[in-house]
Amino acid sequence: MEGHTIPRLELCAAVLATQILQTVLDNSEIEFDEVKLYSDSRVVLGYIANTTRRFYVYVANRVERIRRITTPEQWLYISTDQNPADQGTRSIPSTKIQESVWLKGPPFLTLSNLVKENPEEHELVNEDSDKEIRPLVQVVKTNTSEKPATNLGSHRFEKFSDWISLIRSISILKHVARSFSKKTNPNSTQHTNNNRDYRDSVPFHQAKSLIIMETQKDFYMDDFMQLTREEKLRRDSPIISLSPYIDSNGVKRVGGRLNRLKDISNQNELNPIIIPGKSHVGMLIVRYFHAATEHQGRHLTEGAVRAAGFWIVGCRRLVNSIIHHCVKCRKLRGQLLYQKMSDLPLARVTPSAPFTFVGLDVFGPWQVTSRRTRGGLAHSKRWAVIFTCLASRAIHIKVVEDMTTSAFINALRRFVSIRGEVQELYSCTNFVGSTNDLKIDTINVGDGPVKDFLYRRGITWKFNSPHSSHMGGVWERMIGLSRRILDSMLLDHNNKNLTHEVLTTLMYEVCAILNSRPIISVSNDSEAPQILSPSVLLTKKTGRVEEPFQDLGIRDMYKAQWKHVQVLANSFWSRWQKEYLQSLQGRKKWQSERQNVKTGDIVLIKDKNTPRNDWSVSRVVDTFSGEDNLVRKVKVKVTRDGTTSCYVRSVTDLFFTLSQDRAADNQEKLNKEFENLEPRLCQYTFAILPNMPPETNSLLAIRARPYEKGSARSRHTTIYKNGSLSCLAPSITGV
């Protein structure tokens, strides 16, 4: 283009402005925080801000010079009436020169509260008709291959999730294609074929051979071409060790070393069909035979595949993957979930007064004699409430007459009266009903961050999740030991004469025995014969018989008594910190982190009272993370007999069946299939009605005849069923 147009002159003015700016910045001693440039040409501003199109040489060189000194964000638009440079090219009366923008500048520059202007997005003006902009060049890339023109492509088989359904569909498709290819009447648009040979075994095996052949061509095309030309396979071929050959049906089979048995052996067993292990067809075959063996293990599934005449490359790895992701196998033989064992709570590792942090539970019952009557003895039941100190591991047992809130509250009041005030109580959810009457602040460890909770004055009660006895192992262990000691005691007594008073006495003896137990290993060092037990802290007695002292008066007793008690307490906590606390460092199980359970995962809930086949399948609706961001408790939603309920469960009571990510991928894949359905509804499309069983389903040949332009919402549909054709117009949503 010759000559200078207005946009070119405006662009040259912008170049001159950047050159003046560079000169001022190089020679001025003032540091400028920000520099703005104004132009009243939107065309030039579009050139400077452009990042999508290419220019011819004249404009490209000047834009590159401008952007070398400034950035597009520095350029702003100014209207012509406020542009001082515009008045320099026009005549104005001499009386207005003093007040003109030529000398004073635009009015907005003199404002005291000048706000930084946001950079505008300047777009190209008339980019399609601008002669300075190069036209867009569209490049189309075409891939060519040596595949035959009749190749169907194994990627179409990915629409199917069942091996038999795939074979049946291809068989019916071939049958319908043959029926339409027989043009008995060129002027007729309907073609019939009453032959039902697609139900026979011969078309079924032909369709299976076609599927296998297409899959082999897609994955082993180079090997297929070399075998067709009777050439040697390349050395890096994945199937060179199988000595493959092509049979009469065009299917590659294993050659092997057993060809001399060809006359007396079955060909499918002697020369199995080669199936790529990474293909979708290989996955369908393994799924089919895995279901045929009633979801048995890898050995039986792999044997069924080989007995059927298939040699899947990498079969063992594929079978393991199918079994691992099989939902039914997970329901039958899946392992319980677990998460890395959490750190010990602060109450377990902090020295404190006895029974400041207490874990409690109820165990029993026992049959006791309540009174004597004329008809004999009247019996009743008794339970026991065990209180365990989380720091010193001491216990205290109270007997209650029934499992009511009132009985438990009385037992708790007796315990507090003897052992002193309690700061925190830990238990399972069986005591939720007692907290309202006691007016105690209750906390569920899954409700919010416990570490940020400011404990108020009084008792704080924390509940573990239901069916999570491992979360209360401190007191659960004590319950087991108490039962063993009590069973040994009751063996020596006549249970028929067991009364409430006798049972209470036995419980106190159980407390004495358990509080005297060593909480660390007994040392073999003769210099330290003392054992570390909770009774040392509770009674300030070591349990050893001291030799009598001579020549001691009452003054010596008063003077040394407090020292004796203090020494025993200090000795306990010193050994507790050095020996007992260090024994809690290791994790006996659940030592590695596992993937967290996510919202939306499908899980199986363990129930000890029902068989595994009757366990409930539920969906995770919420998760509770600990301080280490690991999920150990979840909230699940279960539907039973039409009733939906939500429960909080530990992950150790769950069996993983289907992940939320995999379910989302399946749903996304399904959505894409439906999104791509409408563009494919042209001329003849084969579909299946969803409201009919698979064995009696109808094959549809849909001819695209839209009711309105650009719409594919409705079609005249030709149904081929029972050897005849009929026409109707259903909606796409019914297909």
What would your notes on this structure say?
Helix 6 packs across helix 7 (201-219) and helix 10 packs across helix 11 (298-307). This protein has 735 residues and is α/β, with parallel strands linked by helices. Helices cover 34% and strands 16% of the residues. The protein has 21 helices and 21 strands. The strands form six sheets. Strands 9-8-7-10-12-11 form a six-stranded mixed beta sheet. Strands 16-15-14-13-17 form a five-stranded antiparallel beta sheet. A four-stranded antiparallel beta sheet has the order 18-19-20-21, covered by helices on one side.
For the sheet with most strands, the description reads: 6 strands, mixed
Radius of gyration: 43 Å
Largest sheet, order of strands side by side? 9-8-7-10-12-11
- Judged by helices, strands and strand pairing, the structural class is alpha/beta
Q: Number of helical segments?
A: 21
Mean pLDDT: 75
Morphology call: flat
The total strand number stands at 21
Low-confidence stretches: 187-196, 442-457, 544-550, 674-735
How much beta, percentage-wise? 15-25%
Distance between the termini: 59 Å
Assembly level = single chain
Any descriptors?
single chain; 6-stranded mixed β-sheet; flat; 5-stranded antiparallel β-sheet; alpha/beta; 21 helices; disordered C terminus; 735 residues; 16% strand
